[in-house]
Amino acid sequence: MAVIESLLQFLSTGTLLGSLLLLLVLYLLSSGSRSQKEEKEPPGPKPLPLLGNLLTLDLKRPFDTFFELSKTYGNIFQVFLVPRKTVVLIGYKIVKEALVNYAEEFGDRKIEPGFRIMNDKHGILFSNGENWREMRRFALSNLRDFGMGKRGSEEKIIEEIQFLKGEFDKFEGKPFDTTQPVNYAVSNIISAIVYGSRFEYTDPRFTDMVDRANENVRVLGSASMMVWE
């Protein structure tokens, strides 16, 4: 019995050492390949094998981590989300220059696996190329027919702001999370423009619908979905 336990312990130790050795080899290989390209690529923190820079990120508030990294690496830097390299742009001027002056280079959107499955590469947010341009033209044309950009839509926005202000007043100046009431307000503006009516913030059908949509976005953009690709 003692011999069997010793053998199992040796095998488990050997497996652990083998895994550590494999990770070390991967790290050395990745470091070598990066050193040849680092002159052409933005700076950034060194990634770990397989995990990339995930351990250095606050996955609940990654933008806070990106802001702190920008103090060290500048307004343009790169991080590795698992094995995927991601270039991060910080600041209004940098983002505007990328999206306006270099619109073609930065025009494509990264479509995550969950969104690809749900939308099959359709829709304005989840497509690229000619398909995206056609969907955008169609959406803008129909939204203008509904009054987008006209005086009527402005009045609906101002009206909804009064309801939103009423929600904020309920907290009597105390700190609170504005996410939910703002989401309800935005959804009501869309509803008012498209359907001609709005919902009360206490309507369970309305709140459930908006909350489910937000939860889907949260899950599809979570760290577990980043790992699955």
TrEMBL record:
Biological process (GO), any one: organic acid metabolic process
The species this protein was found in: Phoxinus phoxinus
TM regions (residue ranges): 6-29
Keyword Membrane: yes
GO cellular component: cytoplasm
Keywords annotated in UniProt: Iron, Membrane, Metal-binding, Transmembrane, Transmembrane helix
Name under which the protein is recorded: Uncharacterized protein
Gene3D superfamilies for the chain: Cytochrome P450 (1.10.630.10)
